[in-house]
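Input record (one chain):
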Amino acid sequence: MEPITYTASVTASTSIPIPAVGFDIFAILGTMFGVNDLSNVSSGLLGFLESLWSIYVVLAFLFSIFLLVIYVFASIRRNLYIQLMTQELRDQEALWEERAGGKRNDNRLAGVIAHSNSDNPNDWKLAIIEADVMLDEALKNRGFVGTTLGERLRNITPNQMDSINDAWEAHKVRNRIAHEGSDFILTQRVVQETIMRYQRVFTELGIS
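The corresponding structure, as predicted from the sequence alone:
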């Protein structure tokens, strides 16, 4: 008789705990925002971002108002400055007309050239102002229409006056002196070129 072998079958179910390693980011966010689950964390984060956006909008609006006030103030100051410079230029022109009234044109032109050859930048401006006054008077005397020198020049064609371009370029320098004031850097070279333009016009108009 063969021996009988008994096999024991044992089934065991055991549970081995796994230790937690690292940290829980959601728990940290929940602690920061005072919530216990992810949905609450998201709501809290969105609320925080909305608050930041509201603050940004308010600050941006206030900053825009500030820039607008600065722009308006600067514009007013600039306009006042231009008005003062224009009035000063008109006063200088009136003074020159008063002093030069009744004098021969050749004497006036000699004064213009003398001022342009000066080392004083103020004399350079005065030379151009004087020459521009002479040009305006000469065109008036020859019947060219217009309430200002600029209008008279616009009404003149090259067929009427060969040196009209010189007159325009010279008058533009005078206008820059009037409107830009100290911002316009006037060099002696520019003065000499401008006076030469006036002289070419005067020669054509019979002023020497």
